[in-house]
Amino acid sequence: MTNRDELAEAEPLDAAERRQLDVIRRWGTVGALLLVVGSLGAGAAPVFSPLPGTPVLGLFARMPSATMGVTWTGMFLVVSAWLWLGRFARPGRPRLMTRSQLDRTLLMWITPLVFSLPMFSRDVYSYLAQSQIAANGQDPYELGPATALGVDHPLTTNVPNIWRETPAPYGPLFLAAGRAISMVTGDSVLPGVFLHRLLVLLGLVMIVWALPRLAVRFGVPPVSALWLGAANPLVLFHLVVGVHNEGLAIGLMLVGLEVALRRMPKTTDVPLSLDELGFIVLGATLITMGAAVKIPAALALGFLGVMIARRLGGRFVDLLRSALLLAAVSGVVMTATCLGTGLGFGWIETLNVAGTVKSWMSPPTAMGFLGGGLGLVFKLGNHTDAMITLMRVLTQAVSVVLGAWLLWNAFRGRIKAVNGLGAGLGAVLVLGPVLQPWYVLWAALPLATGVLAKRFRIFATTVSAVIAVILPPTGSAFDGRAYTVPQAVTGALVAFAVCLFVARKQVMPLIRRDPLPGAA
């Protein structure tokens, strides 16, 4: 683990770099404002939206290609600003931006996005419907929106067709929070969306608090972790704008890890004091609460147990003791959450609800489609469903084995536990039955706090930037009007090129390669 003093060696930015930072901030802020404007016509607006009949604002809803072009232009501006910002957060650079400079940049980019309509996904409407079911005293783990609320209910009409008959796949803590929101907003869609976004922003605050602290523990400059993690376009687009509850789940998980490690003894083979034990219990409680939002957060308990065992002496008996402690804490907390919310344990049976959707983005599902297609080609019959089921079982078994291997290597000290957590979450989600672009954040955020390797950061940066710009903003299919996407992207590329030309004097220094440390 890197000494804290070693992370403080970088000097602040010089005057020229501060001017470049101001350009980057304004560039990204303009992009965020364009996203807000574009959301009025290209966003995942409610079915019965008040916008079409609103003077001036209603024009955007009647120009889908133009508003999508505006949105994609904003996406290009935000992603390019993030890439340029990365030069001032690169590990090993002699001058890095300060934490306050990065925080100010984040605030400038996020503030406009808080007021945008949802984009990139319609999941928030499922949250509203499922929360209303719970508020009505019905069981969201037994009934889908169409059955519980009716197909003509204003909240049901906004839920995508594939989810209208399915029960909620989310944990009881999240639905309890959603139930409280529904009691305030009722059938009002836009106020409900806004309050759910505030819930996600609470998770983002947790992420911003935990990332730099964990980074210092695991030898990464805090601003480097925040840049790759909290400032990541995937966070801005899919947590803030897309209103995904991953923000709350990951935030609780990361805060739980940091709290649990706060008073951990720095020397091995030392018994835990009551103070240290209390922080571990509190941290495990927060991680379990994250799992009560979305279950992948529970994997952090395993790697926390590994870190505790190593601090206790690194013996196998220490691993068993830490496992028993965390199992007891998480069992009590989860039971109390299920019973205290009144939602019970039905969520355990609905964890596989998402698997009913057959998406080509999931590698095992794609392999199942491929196997079924080969069967048709060779006239062996259509066994697509059987092949998908087989591939999912095999890949999930592989993810379990890989997770156990990562846990063991972290226990033996061959890898950082936080890196094992990121890799393990990545394996579980990539090899799972469903894969969505924002799932990348489960792996990227923990890894941002523990990996300094240049190859990893280039890979993570490239993947984040590419995924950030390939998902259409509408959060739905383009039945009968697929031509709008190439039109919008072409217009956005032209507009982005014009922006680069107009601001070429300010932008060119950012495009030039940053000199290596020590270069003249």
Automatic annotation (TrEMBL):
Output the Pfam families linked to this UniProt entry.
Answer: MptA_B_family
Major location, coarse class?
membrane
GO MF annotation list: glycosyltransferase activity
Query: GO terms for CC?
Result: membrane
The membrane-topology field of this record reads: Multi-pass membrane protein
Catalytic activity, EC: 2.4.1.-
Task: Please give the family membership noted in the entry.
Answer: Belongs to the MptA/B family.
* Location of this chain's protein in the cell: Membrane
Instruction: Give the protein name, as stated in the record.
Output: Alpha-1,6-mannosyltransferase
Query: Which top EC class is named for this enzyme in its record?
Result: transferase
Q: Which UniProt keywords apply?
A: Glycosyltransferase, Membrane, Transferase, Transmembrane, Transmembrane helix
> What organism does the record attribute this protein to?
Saccharothrix violaceirubra
Q: Write out the transmembrane intervals.
A: 27-48, 68-85, 106-121, 194-214, 277-304, 324-348, 360-378, 390-408, 420-444, 456-478, 484-503
Q: Which sequence ranges form a coiled-coil region, renumbered to this chain?
A: none
